[in-house]
Amino acid sequence: MDHSQLTPGSDTRSLISAFDWGATVLGARHDWPAARCCAVDLALRSHAPIALLLGSTGILVYNDAYAALIGTRHPRALGMAVADAFPEYASFCRSVIERVGRGEAVLLSDSALGTAELAAAQRCGIDISYTPIMADGNRVDGVFAVIMATTARVREREGIASGLRQSEKMAAIGQLTGGIAHDFNNLLAGIIGNLDMLTTRLAQRDLTSAESYLAGARSAASRAAGLTQRLLAFSGRQSLMPTVIDIPGFLLDIEELLSHTVGPAIELRTRCDPAVGTAVCDHHQLENALLNLAINARDAMPDGGRLTIEACNRTLDIPGAGAAHTAGAYVVVSVMDTGCGMTEDVAARAFDPFFTTRKGGQGTGLGLSMIYGFLKQSGGHVELQSRPGMGTIVRLFIPRETATDAIDGADSATQAPQRGAEGVILVVDDEPDLRALLAEMLEGLGFSVVQAPDAAAALDVLSASGRIDLLISDIGLRGAMDGRCLVDAAHALRPGLPVLFITGLSAGSDAARVVTGPRVELLRKPFSFSAFEDRVERLLERVA
Fold first, then answer.
1. What is the pLDDT of residue 133?
2. CA 95 to chain CA centroid, nearest Å
3. CATH number of this structure's domain 242-399, picked from the four choices 3.30.565.10, 3.30.930.10, 3.40.50.12160, 3.40.50.300
4. pTM flag (> 0.90)
């Protein structure tokens, strides 16, 4: 029978009666076994959505409630193999038919499976129960699938979880601030201690160790900057810099660093499947993720043990319950230890923000949460498997590179040749120490510098007839005008004036969004002197 004759307004019982089943592998309806006929009659009498997947290929027969559920796929789906009617779930459907064919019962809980074409264009939570239809001779004739809506249950559970999160918010903030204070105090101790020692040695006119003290202070400051970036990535407000990463080479490069991190009492092994190639994510964040997991593994093996890091390719084409992951091609980097493992309760909370098993004030409890946030931003996800006394496995699913999403990790901007430093630069920042430091840097490069503490003072300078070759301004200036308003006014007075914005605001902040171009660039704090010098020279080169 031609499917075009089956109109959506027809009753499914009538459609089933009119359908040419003899043209399918099921054969004419009057030859169907009694168990099949009973199952069809039961489905048609039910008010619940029911579908029968008959024969080895799962030919679809269903009732009115199921027809309403699948929307525009009805009536075309009637009499089709389920894998053809729902090609996006073909692999999953074949798996269900195979399992039920062995006599198993399968339950899919709180899924959105099969609801992509609801007439109301909405998604809902559902349970699907798959049980075998038994024919003569204890033979499985097909699958009896009952669909039960769970949207209300899911929403109720989400509401309870939301209430719990709200009630725990103040405690979580207290734990976060205590942990961050601990981490930053350690870093500040390194910065202040090295600078104090440098001051002492300079007073003694002893310069032999000056370089090591400066290096120590710079290292601690860099780690502090890295902590803020990881916090922002965790919250989803830090722009990641995805690049194409050669995973085998990456693991080879990081192996020595990880070995030093875990110490000699722990045996480190790395394995990489020969088929593994490249993946797409932020190189720095991936390195931080592996370092964090290595530190966790080290802490779980105080008496020594083995840490194994391995990589393989994996393709996911079956949607997880509750859409836990996205189908696609991934490189999976697994971090496995032989440590103490986690109880079920601890494992269930491992990725919760602020959750930690360390004593209060000794860490933020954000390590695994940051990894989770980084991978979600990157289009991947993370899985954890652990048992007490059996160790822990953390799997990082990183999107595999394809020809269409290759990202050039190199800086596409051509390095401008350095010119002889000349010209006048206006520096606007409401932090006097930073403003003075920037001015000193620029004067050291040979520029003349005019300083202004706010937008009003800067506009006074720009309104005068004096020469200004470049405007450097913080975005978050105090007062009636922020840096963006200042630049708009500056361009009204001096069209085409090059601008370098500097800001400590996160990339996701509305206040930090500016339109950059050939004559407008943005530099985020903290930055190095070399990065600052490069931006200044590049902007001035473009107008030379």
1. 95
2. 29
3. 3.30.565.10
4. no
